[in-house]
Amino acid sequence: MSYESKDVMHNANLKQVINDVIAQMNNQGGIAIVGTPALAIGSSSKAKVLNGEFTVVRNGVVSTIASAETAFTATTHDIADGKEAIFLVYLNGSNAITILKGADADADEAVCPDTPSGGLKIGEVKISVTGAIFNATTDDLDAAHVTDTYTNKTDVPLALTDYSDKHWLYQDNLQGLLTDMIEIVANKDVPRLVSNPNLVIGTSSKAKIKHDAFTYVLNGAFTTITGGEVAFTATTHDITDGEGAVFLVYLDGSTVKLSKGTATTGGTGATCPATPAGKLKLGEVKIVTSGALFDASTTLLDAATVTDTYTNKTDLVATADFSLSSFGQEDYMYSANFKALLDDIEEDLNVVNNDKILGNPTLVIGSSSKKKVKNSAFSVMRDGVMSIIASTETDFTATTHDLAISTGAVYNIYLDATNTIKILKGTATAGGTGAVCPATPSGGMKIGEVKIVVSADAIFNATTDDLDSAHITDTYTNKLDVFEAIA
User: Fold this and answer.
1) Quick one: which of 27, 186, 221, 262 has the fewest CB in 10 Å?
2) Rounded (5°) CA angle 94-95-100
């Protein structure tokens, strides 16, 4: 979509609230962190804060943040004896991990400082001291006088209370509409998966369902559930010979549970039961039995009488309440262009929340062949279904992807509708100056860009040239499609 203020806006504050929503759509639908930062006491130095490796999406650009240990700042980060403080841990605009201290306070009264403009909060560290000051230069975080608490938490991206009604609202229906938009990108009170549970047959017991460790976010807080195996319930989960049923796999608190759907003959038309209110769907397992009863206590899932199918699938983000069809233009609109703008946002909200990359594709020059583009393994969600994309190397297309001497072009690296990695060349320009990435084809999902510029010495022959050849400059960017803000 592409709009200018004069087409759709009535004042700067209304423009701001909608542009803020678009900005969060470009940060994975308000979930900019993929995985968990796993903040903890340092291992190489107990005077530092350790983070695990994780991925972030900022304005569509996907980056992997390496595991590191971050020191406190001498004197500035000291805490008086008998006091406590909360330290904000965040990424600055350059994705460097930074620590900012809140004010000293009495017990249970400390607050986390606000994230600086351009920063992305990844967590909080609360430190309380009794019997001595906290010396930020020398004290280990497990010292006897220190109590340290680590919370993996990001900012809730938007709230309608950030804006004043009188500046941009004209009546209740417009306010209701914008509230719905903001609650979707804020993921308010609803847990969302940010990694793939990867459901499979159990390894310690083939009568159980195994899941990998996975992470979810709820109101900005990240929680990682340890990998495990889940047993069926005796008798309740039995399936009569010749029938099949779909089992819901879901998270209840910190426990992974199963719920059986209605069995049907041969499993034809069997559906997954609804996720209980407030719980998090992880996937579905369909079991069809032929030749014997499926005994939930004893039958192995690889038994000859059992056909088992595992689908990593979460519930779709509910955008039904945010539907323009429930309003007439006269209820909240002032122009057809404004209605078109909100209609586009409605569609894009659904896309960005239910179709997303989970992890970092990490595009680089090929290792088995330097003529190819390599991606690392990552997961993708499409309409709530999660799939693992294997690490692979993708060829350029002969002739079609060639470049003339002294030119450059940007190539779109994307998944087609079948999750096959494809390459699409953009228009070449002199020296690559001003070259832009071509639009992702319908049904595709962009995972990155590769820019290739060739010198005056030779063409880029897409069939034979290695990407590290002397006449080639190649640049790899892990980047998703983004939505345009209002100009």
Assistant:
1) 262
2) 100
> What tens digit of pLDDT does each residue of 33-67 get?
777 899 999 999 999 999 999 988 887 778 889 99
Whether residue 301 contacts residue 207, with contact meaning beta carbons closer than 8 Å, is answered with: yes
Same-domain status, 72 and 120: yes
Domain count, the chain: 4
Q: Is residue 320 part of a domain?
A: no
Average pLDDT, the chain: 86
Q: If you write DSSP's letter for every residue of 455-485 in order, what string do you get?
A: -TT--B-TTT--TT-TTEEEEEE-B----PP
**Structural domain of residue 11, as residue ranges?**
5-27+164-181+326-354
Rounded Cα distance between 431 and 334, Å, is 46
Residues 345 and 441 in one domain: no
Give the span between the Cα atoms of 352 and 24, in whole angstroms: 10
* Cβ 201 vs Cβ 308: under 8 Å: yes
Name the pLDDT band for 332 (thresholds 50, 70, 90). very low
Q: Are 365 and 474 in contact (CB under 8 A)?
A: yes
pLDDT of residue 328: 47
Separation of alpha carbons 50 and 274, rounded Å: 39
Mark whether 82 and 23 lie in a shared domain.
Answer: no
User: Is residue 383 classed exposed, middle or buried when 0-12, 13-18 and 19+ CB atoms within 10 A define those classes?
Assistant: exposed
pTM for the structure as a whole: 0.73
- Give the angle 282-358-23 at the CA atoms, nearest 5°: 115
Domain assignment present for residue 39? The answer is yes
Closest CA to 391 of 363, 423, 422, 425: 363
Give me the torsion for CA of 58, 59, 60, 66, rounded to 10°: -20
DSSP string across 164-180: -HHHH--SHHHHHHHHH
